[in-house]
Amino acid sequence: MLxxxxxxxxxxxxxxxxxxxxxxxxxxxxHKLTYFNIPVILNTSKTFAELIELRQQIGxxxxxxxxxxxxxxxxQFYFKTxxxxxISKNGYWIKExxxxxxxxxxxxxxxxxxxxGEFTHFYNMSNEEIMLATGLSSKQASLANTREYGEPILxxxxxxxxxxxxxxxxxxxxGATPLQGGRFLHLSGQCDKGKALIWLMAQFQAENETxxxxxxxTSIALGDGQNDIAMLEAADIAVRIxxxxxxxxxxxxxTRVYTSHSYGPHGxxxxxxxxxxxxx
Length: 280
Description:
This protein has helices spanning 27-35, 48-58, 101-109, 127-134, 138-144, 161-173, 193-208, 229-234, 264-278; strands at 5-9, 40-42, 64-66, 71-75, 87-89, 92-96, 119-121, 151-155, 177-180, 185-188, 218-223, 237-242, 257-263. It is an alpha/beta fold. Helix 4 (127-134) crosses helix 5.
């Protein structure tokens, strides 16, 4: 069995089924990870508000990463001391990597006349429109729109790749870091899931350096989309999950890379069983 493991996981189409958002197929593995005290760290494009209830359902008490690496929420006293460069708020130590949402909304305002009719975004969409675009329930769609650090963009252009590419380049010139997810182009600052993973790994490592026996953690990252590439590259072990909607992420790293044979939570559970509990 692989010891001292930290599991970093994407949600949509990875731990959650792409169509139903169910994680039922992963429940036995989630229980097994809990039994062996292996933290499951959610690393997702979802918001803080979305994750509060979802974390309880999944059964993880570990820190979590929101909005594609824009911020890390650590339950207060999860570590012995508060990490440097974090703020205390509502029972969490928070490490922020991005400017607030209002900044990115002002960036989009500058481009609306140049790309009229080509895109919309969460702030301008009704709850019903978000439900239609995502398949979320009314409550879930409302929570998805409580963003703090970035903005999901829905591209509505006629399909011209050059127009969308010009739009992305314009965002970059305005200081943004656009990141293509499974359904949306996510707009935020110079942050990603990989930088957040590296920072949080360092906190786990520092937590144990003062103990008589120092642990050396192994990070396992699981994801299905392009916005997961930085996380998969940063982890010790990368797991690409088959998705009915996305092509497999293309990685530079060639070693310790696994690819699931099943979609979503089925593949998620099968790969962790092999990596943690079956490999010598």
